[in-house]
Amino acid sequence: MTSILKYLLIASITVSAVYSLPQVKGDNQKLQGIIDALINNTLNSIIDGLDDPITVSDINLNMTDDNLNGYLDISSLVLEGITGLVATSINTNIFTLSTNITLNIPEIQLNINYDTDLLLLNLVPLYGAGLVSAKLDNINVDIEGHVDISDGISFSNTTIVLGLDSGVFELTGLLHNAEFSEIVTDALNDNLVPFINTYQTQISNIISPIAESFINSILNANKTEIKELIREYENIQTKLN
Predict the structure, then answer these.
(1) φ, ψ (nearest 5 deg) of residue 219
(2) Is the peptide bond before 53 cis (omega within 30 degrees of 0)?
(3) Could you tell me the CATH number of the domain that includes residue 227?
(4) Which label site among 140, 189, 201, 237 has the fewest CB atoms less than 10 Å from its CB?
(5) Beta partners for 237?
């Protein structure tokens, strides 16, 4: 009799677990959708608040590092196309809160008026005044990291990888020499895009910590909507537990 009761208990637990699986799976999918929507809505909120083109004037940078010493003054910076940015993929693991985001910008046009006098590696002089322009096509940005939604949204342990299809560059005024500027322009047009795509890992190691800090500084622009989504996330998480 004891054995029969034991088998009935096991069967009951098994049946209960089987019937509960679709609900748990549905809640997991809903939970993942909420986190992904949280990230996407935050991104859209930031993009919607941007002007296009973005214009910045009077940027003055003074570098005192051994590798780069001197100044860079930007009298005008115009960036067009950033509002075309879309998230083509957002994938978040609901248990670890690790996330993988792919962003795409169809086209960016950048124009900078500069005046600079720098010494690179205490050896190479970089000076001049003129224009830097770049037209970049089909820029892909892959972001991997851990997302924290305890207070708004932020990222940690972030890796950012850049890739682009093509680019056209122009540089004038370097060393106050038109011919030298043309040589540098040709070198940029021939080599910069292949360089970026070939050395993605090395470039990522340099830009990821800087980009993570920059992203986190602007991500909480609209906390009200974010916290409403977080409350829904917490309600479902409680249900799952």
Answers:
(1) -70, -25
(2) yes
(3) 3.15.10.30
(4) 201
(5) none
Element (H, E) at 95: none
Distances (CA, A) of 139 to 33, 104, 107: 26, 6, 7
Show pLDDT as tens, one digit a residue, over the chain (241 residues).
444 434 333 334 333 443 343 444 445 555 566 677 777 777 877 788 788 888 888 888 888 877 788 999 998 899 999 889 888 888 888 788 888 999 999 999 999 999 999 998 888 889 999 999 999 999 999 999 998 877 777 889 999 999 999 999 999 999 999 999 999 999 999 999 999 999 999 889 888 888 888 787 776 655 555 555 555 555 555 555 5
Radius of gyration of the chain (CA): 25
Residue 240 · residue 32 · CB < 8 Å: no
Closest CA to 159 of 123, 198, 212, 120: 212
Question: For the chain, what is the domain count?
Answer: 1
